[in-house]
Amino acid sequence: MKVERLKINYRTLEEFKKFHEHGLEELSMYEDLRANLVEDSSSSPFYGVYEDGKLVARMSLYPIDARFDRYFSPPRDHFELWKLEVLPGYKGRGFGRALVQYGQSLGEPIKTNVRYGAQDFFTKLGFEPVKYDPNRDRGENPYVWIPATEDQSYEPTR
Amino acid sequence: MKVERLKINYRTLEEFKKFHEHGLEELSMYEDLRANLVEDSSSSPFYGVYEDGKLVARMSLYPIDARFDRYFSPPRDHFELWKLEVLPGYKGRGFGRALVQYGQSLGEPIKTNVRYGAQDFFTKLGFEPVKYDPNRDRGENPYVWIPATEDQSYEPTR
Fold first, then answer.
1. Low-confidence ranges of chain B (pLDDT < 70)
2. What is the SS3 assignment for chain A?
3. Of B23, B62, B116, the CB nearest to A23
4. How far apart are the CA of A143 and the nearest CA of chain B, in angstroms?
5. Across chain A, what does the average pLDDT equal?
6. I need a labelling partner for B89 at 20 to 30 A (CA). Which of A46, A101, B111, B152 fits?
């Protein structure tokens, strides 16, 4: 199972249409391509797994600069993980886990918003719920992961 | 159909358990109640509709101070709408619409993150998609609504 960083091009965007979480972000990517605002081969925040030439799982990882960090103390560079999704018919085969573990291999902490039903999946991968802050979280379910080898002074704010 | 602001108490939190989007926020409310950090009758960000004594629909509205506004230009106080949800068996009867319209009656603009499949619901209520900004939106689908009677200089950033 090979996780790869997805290039922004028409072929990738066609594959994205099969995914449930398809919205303004993908529309905006189409517009950027049409307006030649991006190179066909630009890298994107998306990572995915192909099987037999078909994109069957994807996630996005947005690098967050420490200046905008609201989850770690002291503030630090990290990734926000969104849009983790495995196509129907491909679930239960480890595609989602492979994607998250790939993100974890990049060496930075990760924050994600865990959907109902996915808590166990993320806690098995070492994520922990943060202490809920109504002003910051506004209904989200933030979970964070920090690399195990790190200095213990980097504790999530909880 | 009467929309009411929900009080934070054990009864309300028990009703919340029937809803799909149930997570850290609700757990935190329980903890606050147990620790006597809130009055039983405290008001909450939640609004809901009861039928025959049962909570059948809810949403949350978080007041955002203009200082933290990232969606309107010039920045202004507004609401973020989250967790709009109607229980199975009660869909298609206008509960969701009544909740959003109640929010619109409060006189401030509203920003929400529209889920896949709910675009038509929100555009019929006057919401419009914003121009997607990858650094701000990170995979969200932000839609905004501004009161129709307002000075036209308050345009959403798009």
1. 39-42, 150-158
2. CCEEEEECCHHHHHHHCCCCCCCHHHHHHHHHHHCCCCCCCCEEEEEEEEECCEEEEEEEEEEECHHHCCCEECCCCEEEEEEEEECCCCCCCCHHHHHHHHHHCCCCCEEEECCCCCHHHHHHCCCEECCCCHHHHCCCCEEEECCCCCCCCCEECC
3. B116
4. 10
5. 89
6. B111
